[in-house]
Amino acid sequence: MLNKSIIDANKSVVTFFREYLPELGYDFIGNGGKNVILAHYDDSHGYTPAQIRLYRRPRGDKLLSVEGLTKRAKAEDTMTFEHDSNRIIVKIFREE
Q1: CA angle 57, 49, 45 (to 5 degrees)
Q2: What's the pLDDT at 42?
Q3: Range of 30's domain?
Q4: Pairing of strands 47-56, 87-93
Q5: What pTM, to 2 d.p., does this model score?
Q6: What span, in angstroms and rounded, lies between the C-alpha atoms of 42 and 92?
Q7: Are strands 34-42 and 78-84 parallel, antiparallel or unpaired?
Q8: Is 2 contained in some domain?
Q9: pLDDT tens, position by position, for the chain (96 residues)?
Q10: Is residue 33 in a domain?
Q11: Residue 64: partners with Cβ closer than 8 Å, 6 or more residues away
Q12: Structure confidence at residue 76 (pLDDT)
């Protein structure tokens, strides 16, 4: 399991939200602010709702947290976001 719930947003995460949800992405979050976005985990048999929180630290660092991530993923796993019919899909891929 992960022991950290807030993670740094890399360039691909920033670009994803700029492309698919530009009005809620990092470009519109002031330093020290946050936006909450509804997403869904792909559970391979259905979709479970979850919130994604996009943050900016007071000095401008870009961070995110995904509700329930620490219970679903290990440190070696890969998390991806997809945009599907006006919703954000969160997928977790386990390293084998």
Answers
A1: 135
A2: 94
A3: 7-93
A4: unpaired
A5: 0.88
A6: 8
A7: unpaired
A8: no
A9: 456 678 999 999 999 999 999 999 999 999 999 999 999 999 888 999 999 999 999 999 999 999 999 888 888 889 999 998 889 999 999 876
A10: yes
A11: 6, 7, 9, 13, 52, 53, 54, 55
A12: 86
| DSSP-assigned states of every residue in 7-60 | EE--HHHHHHHHHH-TTTSGGG--TT-EEEEEEEEE-SSSEEEEEEEEEE-TT-
Domain count, the chain: 1
Task: Extract the tokens encoding 67.
Answer: 């509700």
How far from each other are the two terminal CA atoms of the chain, in whole angstroms?
15
Backbone angles phi, psi at 18, to 5 degrees: -65, -40
